[in-house]
Design goal:
CATH class of the largest domain: Alpha Beta
Shape: globular
CATH topology of the largest domain: Pseudouridine synthase
Number of domains: 3
Distance between the termini: 60 Å
CATH architecture of the largest domain: 2-Layer Sandwich
Oligomer: single chain
Structural class: alpha+beta
Strand content: 15-25%
Radius of gyration: 22 Å
Largest sheet: 9 strands, mixed
Order of helices and strands: EHHEEEEHEHEEEEEEHHHEEH
Amino acid sequence: MPDEEGFFTIIAAEVDTDTRLDYFVASSISACSRKTAASLLQKGLIRVSGSVKKPGYRIKPGDIIEGIIPLPEPMAFQPEPIPLSILFEDETIIILDKAPGIVVHPAPGHYSGTLVNGLLFHCPDLSGIGGTLRPGIVHRLDKDTSGVLAVAKNQDAHIHLASQFKSRQVDKRYLCVVYGEPKKDAGTIRLPVGRHPSDRKKMSVHSHKPRSAETDWQVRERLNGFALLDIRLKTGRTHQIRVHCTAIHHAIVGDPVYGGRKTIQKFKKEKRAGRLMKGVSRQMLHAWRLSLKHPKTNEPMQFEAPVPEDMKALIEGLRKQDGE
């Protein structure tokens, strides 16, 4: 890992033999993408045993890869008067109903207009709790996923909630509309999830470095070629529900990353679903219920968020199609 100045040194092992240099650097350093690694190699900022090598150079055992990863510029983000849908709030926690289309915390390309910007305006003392870039955030939802989100308002609450999530004491329930109808009414998906072997922006069940992942699912309603699933997460891997649903060949409707181009085009061409699909602009995934213990009183609490209008319209439309 890079030191405080961004410098790093890695000695290639036997297992790394014949790995592309740019891929090796990117997979070894989490803060460096393959594209960034290739650019730094071409500029000579990363070298192999003192020599400049091309991104496609094949690693040999004993190679000494060293260089510098430019440190990211500090992100300056300010409180913004962004409307928040608050389900519950006291001096310890805030429980929100996150709308689809909102990024949870600032990141490259999203320095403003995030949920954190709105939280800092609503609660100025939130700054610094649990980290500068993600104040109060103990778990996250994807930009286009809606639903219940818990935020800690002080350091003790943050530690308590983070411990609950880590020890799997929190019950997270989701609803999603998927392509196709599962043959069974319920099941459990036990497939490890990790970074995609060739696309660092995606997750996959075929990762080189997977982590165990488990998802329970149950058919809540069959919708004539589609299905509304009730999902319970037992683990919390990045994009877990989206990846697992795709792995069992029932991708989430509207998912632009894991939905599969052929699947999306197939349903768009069908007259009964084509009109409805045109109105879908995001993955139909909603965190409808969250159960946890209050970080101060330890009292069990449960929060629910209503299904958002776009998802409700799709479900109702599919029901009507079902009756035709």
